[in-house]
Amino acid sequence: MSEAKKLFLKTYGCQMNVYDSERMAEAMGAEGYVLTEVAEEADMVLLNTCHIREKASEKLYSDLGRLKPLKLAKPDLKIGVAGCVAQAEGAEILRRMPLVDLVVGPQAYHRLPEMARSPGQVVDTEFPPEDKFDHLPARKTNRGPTAFLTVQEGCDKFCTFCVVPYTRGSEVSRPVARLLAEAQDLVARGVREITLLGQNVNAFHGEGPEGGAWTLGRLIRALDEIPGLERIRYTTSHPNDMDDDLIAAHGDAASLMPYLHLPVQSGSDRILRAMNRRHTANSYLRLVDRIRAARPDILLTSDFIVGFPGETDADFEATLDLVRAVGYGAAFSFKYSARPGTPAAEKPPVPAEVADARLQALQALITAQQHAAQKAMVGRRVGVLYEKPGRLPGQMVGKSDHLMAVHVDDPQGQVGDLVQVEVIASSTNSLAARRLPG
Ligand code: 5AD
Ligand code: SF4
């Protein structure tokens, strides 16, 4: 038998890309490729790209530039670009970087093996009518106690700064029967926590087994019935799609974790309108109240954009006020990055130094809230799912119910154990805890 071919796969960006990369690795595995961590020994290099901010796509071109000597030394090396830059730029990538052999958009991954066999340069950025997951091999690899499961893709919201509706296309939900079968299969292979993924996950409306659409709340309640599936999470949600049933599920679905990523982007109604968010700061705050009424200990996280075109000091102050009013467990904040083809990119930008200063101020406030949220856990009893051994002997590392990293001294602990602990200390980015008996 000839030696296995080697695939070097680099993933940029969001969790959806992480999930897609796993599925592509499996599709290429069926072609005889094994993964390598070393680009120099690869027969194929595949970069799964992100287009959400300018920096993310510039990184792709500098990484491609660095592959030039490899390609010169090994002309048979296949270089592929997948993901959202592939979708957005298509054949333009081949023009700018002739060393690239294939460009494959996120909806065409089932065609990757065929494209890799093809001798010339190929581009596929089609949105085929069928579900790409029907054509990708089922997952065989065992990847520890946590897994992602893509339940919907794409977005119809058209926030004026965002490329997702263009790169991932309009909102498509996967059928419920497939999702339940995939979840059961994951659990049979040792998975105890599933994170449901979608660019607009709570807009989920997958076809139910008896016809008719299911909401995300209904899907979560069905998953909650699967024995052995201990934890459910979902991301990323739009505030306007948090319906009553989904909110109620946070109170009564036992395996739905007390954690919710709920991006708000800005606290200024003027800016929210310009972003086409279709909610106000006040409607968001009322929503947060309803969610907390259903699940008082829920930890909220968010995304923010500072320096959106037209953002004044007063608008930015309104964002800080909203952050103070909510009290987040963590949040991502980004400087606005103009994406060609989006409506906001036509507007005059805020000066870079103003945006920088706002980013720093917002991040300082969020970091303080994160530390406060971690400190508030000290003395509390929480569940932890062990994901890997820690750096110290006898130590295990996992995530708490609230998705905080936790270190536990537990020489008997095994990866995949779901244990009860008492939090004893909080450091910059993690908690230390003591395992409780039982
Ligand atoms: N500039 C800056 N941040 C952006 N995001 C999306 N598009 C842009 C952009 N053009 C941020 C939003 C979103 C997160 C995934 O990325 O905050 O919620
Ligand atoms: Fe982008 Fe999210 Fe807005 Fe959709 S809802 S356009 S993915 S920011």
Describe this structure in words.
By secondary structure, this protein is of the alpha/beta class. Helix 10 runs parallel beside helix 11, helix 11 (244-252) packs parallel to helix 13 (281-294) and helix 14 (313-326) runs parallel beside helix 15 (352-375). The chain has helices at 15-29, 54-66, 68-73, 83-89, 92-96, 112-117, 132-135, 164-167, 176-188, 216-224, 244-252, 269-274, 281-294, 313-326, 352-375, and strands at residues 5-11, 33-35, 44-49, 78-82, 102-104, 122-124, 146-150, 152-153, 172-173, 193-197, 231-235, 259-261, 299-306, 330-335, 381-389, 395-400, 405-409, 418-426, 431-435. The chain is 34% helix and 22% strand. Bound molecules: 5'-deoxyadenosine (5AD) and iron/sulfur cluster. Residues 155, 157-159, 162, 164-165, 199-200, 238 line the site of iron/sulfur cluster.
Key words describing this protein structure:
binds 5'-deoxyadenosine, OB fold (Dihydrolipoamide Acetyltransferase, E2P), 4 iron, 4 sulfur cluster binding, six-stranded parallel β-sheet, binds iron/sulfur cluster, alpha/beta, five-stranded mixed barrel, single chain, 438 residues, 3 domains, pyruvate-formate lyase- activating enzyme, Rossmann fold
